[in-house]
Design brief:
With 248 residues, the protein is an alpha/beta fold. The chain has helices at residues 4-24, 58-77, 108-116, 144-157, 176-187, 211-217, 226-239, and strands at residues 29-35, 80-86, 88-90, 123-126, 138-143, 163-168, 173-175, 193-196, 205-206.
Length: 248
């Protein structure tokens, strides 16, 4: 919310440049990493794909702008595209070889793990007065390997002029406090917590209805509970405490 130009430049302008390059080279299939943030504050939970897209932050607005541009390209240039609306991508590869290593880190699960490992003084909860069971935001966490499989299935289905739009989530939400508690259970370590005010642009609840992709593409998430997702993340972070800098 404080630096909207950064999101519009990266998510919209740079993607449009890429799309023009692809058009010049006659590449006509595009699988786009969209987001649940395009829905804003939905009236219905779980969220079906037909829900009006009314983003409340620049991240969601910039992603929605790309979805609309892709629809125009599909009509004008006979592109086939899929807009895959991620909920909260999380976890690490089952074999422990690939994990999340962002600078700065912004995703909740690795942030909580870092707090458990003593790499940061605490995890801050932004808002404890949301209309949710424990007052903290609720999100749908989807494992990265399930995301990857959905990309492949969507790519295989694309044809000239075909437009696909799918939610990617497990259909169950977990609160920030539940994520913290699950990390504590998996790691056996206490997570220091600091409570803070809400962040502008954070919807209270985002949970996916993903029956459409399950029916159309026969996609089925293998990770349907939070704990196994956290276990894969912990497996990677515990082996790579300094991220990929620990590689020999």
């Amino acid at each position: 919310m404080k630096d909207p130009g950064r999101y519009y430049q990266n998510n919209l302008v740079n993607t449009l440049n890429l799309m023009e390059c692809l058009r010049r080279h006659r590449v006509g299939r595009f699988v786009f990493s969209s987001t649940a943030a395009t829905y804003g504050v939905p009236e219905k939970i779980p969220i079906p794909e037909e829900t009006p897209q009314q983003p409340i932050n620049p991240y969601g607005a910039s992603k929605l702008a790309v979805e609309r541009a892709l629809a125009d390209y599909a009509k004008a240039y006979q592109w086939g595209f899929a807009a895959l609306r991620y909920f909260n991508a999380s976890g690490a590869s089952a074999d422990g070889a690939i994990g999340e290593d962002h600078t700065p880190e912004t995703h909740l699960i690795p942030l909580v793990i870092q707090a458990a490992m003593g790499q940061r003084p605490h995890i801050e909860i932004f808002g404890t007065d949301y209309p949710t069971p424990d007052g903290t935001c609720v999100r749908d966490y989807i494992h990265v390997e399930d995301l990857a499989e959905a990309h492949l299935l969507a790519l295989e289905r694309l044809e000239p002029g075909k437009e696909l739009r799918y939610n990617l989530g497990i259909g169950r939400g977990y609160s920030v406090r539940e994520v913290i508690r699950t990390v504590e259970e998996v790691t056996g370590k206490k997570v220091p917590v600091k409570e803070g005010p809400r962040r502008e642009g954070d919807p209270p609840v985002l949970v996916a209805a993903s029956e459409k992709i399950q029916s159309d593409l026969r996609w089925q998430p293998r990770y349907t509970e939070l704990r196994p997702i956290v276990e894969t993340a912990w497996n990677w972070h515990s082996k790579h405490p300094r991220g990929y800098n620990d590689r020999k």
